[in-house]
Amino acid sequence: MKPTIFKPLKFAITAISMIAAVAYITTSGGAIAAATSLKSAPSKKAGDFGAPQGKPVNAVLTSPPNVPPPTGRKYPAKVIVELEVVEKDMAISEGVSYTFWTFGGTVPGSFIRVRQGDTVEFHLKNHPSSKMPHNIDLHGVTGPGGGAASSFTAPGHKSQFTFKALNEGMYVYHCATAPVGMHVANGMYGLILVEPPEGLPIVDHEFYVMQGDFYTTGKYREKGLQPFDMEKAIDERPTYVLFNGAEGSLTGDKALQVKTNETVRMFVGNGGPNLVSSFHVIGEIFDNVRYEGGTNVQHNVQTTLIPSGGAAIVEFHTEVPGSYVLVDHSIFRAFNKGALAIMKVDGPDNKAIYSGKELDSVYVGDRSAPNLSAVATAAAAAASGTLTVQEQSAAGKALFNGTCSVCHQANGEGLAGVFPPLAKSDYIAADPKRIIGTVLHGLSGKVIVNGKEYNSVMPPMNQLNDDEIANILTYVLNNFGNVGGKISADEVKTLRAKPAPAAAASH
Ligand SMILES: [Cu+2]
């Protein structure tokens, strides 16, 4: 955040210039009904700024997390939007794929940016390979169905309709073909920004982030192609809650990149279909939030609520370098369902504002690894029955670093007197297979590792699935000077099915 002292002044100026801009357009365009506009002041009303001027413009569409450049126009134009629906399999998590239905090939769909008063000629195409018909309802459209009735498009067809962008704001669009919930759950939503006539203030970075909840028949991170689960969707029990359509879509190599002392604007949408988002950036405070995508601005916000089928524009200034974690602060969604993204801020330390050392793994878990491609490789190999010890170890390393290293440390040395070493552990050597139980059921009471006594508690880690435990333990066995060997997902599965031993259950 920025020193508060500058804000009221800056905003007063912005507000005055906005009013001035509206006044200018009103008199020059002459199309706003004066009586209603005065009554509804200070908020701006819907405005029809007259017939489109100049040559028609082709809208620039971008894939998330990118945002098209400002329109930069001072007059209303005819804007042509071409959007294609594509149904395709994409990764929803490492080693997990899902058949998404998309606007423009991505989840969320392409970002559309127009200016208030523009006349938008909308072309919706449905790729010939699609199995379903689709349409589009844009919340920025004034008219029945928001365009849905005019845009019903069978596979291999296209349709066209035209609307005037009367209200400025940040709007969601989505498919509204029956069963509507299923189309939305499969990723059919995106954002359309209707800029105010004077445009938005210039910032250093603009990003496009959109949350959605997903319902698969398999469990969280269960590998392979996962079908949609209608029953879970109706019960509102998502398997995944995600930013930009995939776990890891904005982490590791794909994290958002900014520098210190920059201004950042995020257009944050929520496609739902079911959940309301408590959008928060760990370690930042929003200087400005245009909540619900509307015209009012709220300052100094920690967490902003984004309804399903709604959006917000958040702005902040970067001071301290490090990793900032975007979450849905309904926090199990972040750490157990995937609603987690990272913004990397590069630049010199700023000890006056924050002194601390960076501890990525505390918040980020396995997402602090640059990427988890080894996990995807291992999943593919497991599916084809050719999983090697090396592949298991490589996948296990990424997961170990996010899960076990918090206590046992990345080098497996542990912490004297608190967390026993996994390195050269005689406890492991004595019975390598029993560590499956250690991870599944936890461990408590007295244990002696390499001649030193520990009497502490390791919590059960049974939120990890069979693959993950097998790979982590294979990594442990083949590293840190341990005995070697291999643990298979089947061995984990077999033990998981048995009741937990009494000793671990009562600690
Ligand atoms: Cu659809």
Key terms:
disordered N terminus; 23% helix; binds copper (II) ion; 507 residues
Description:
The radius of gyration is 26 Å and the shape is elongated. The chain has 14 helices and 23 strands. Helix 7 (373-383) crosses helix 8 and helix 12 crosses helix 13 (489-497). Helices cover 23% and strands 29% of the residues. Strands 1, 2, 3, 5, 7 and 11 form a six-stranded mixed sheet that branches. Mean pLDDT is 87; it is low at 1-43. The protein has 507 residues and is α/β, with parallel strands linked by helices. It has helices at residues 7-29, 34-39, 180-185, 230-234, 332-336, 360-364, 373-383, 389-403, 405-408, 426-430, 434-441, 466-477, 489-497, 502-505; strands at 57-58, 78-93, 96-103, 112-115, 119-126, 137-138, 158-164, 169-174, 189-195, 205-214, 224-225, 240-243, 256-259, 263-272, 277-282, 286-290, 298-301, 303-306, 310-317, 322-328, 340-346, 443-449, 452-458. Strand 2 (78-93) and strand 3 (96-103) form a beta hairpin. Residues 101, 134, 175, 177, 183, 188 line the site of copper (II) ion (CU).
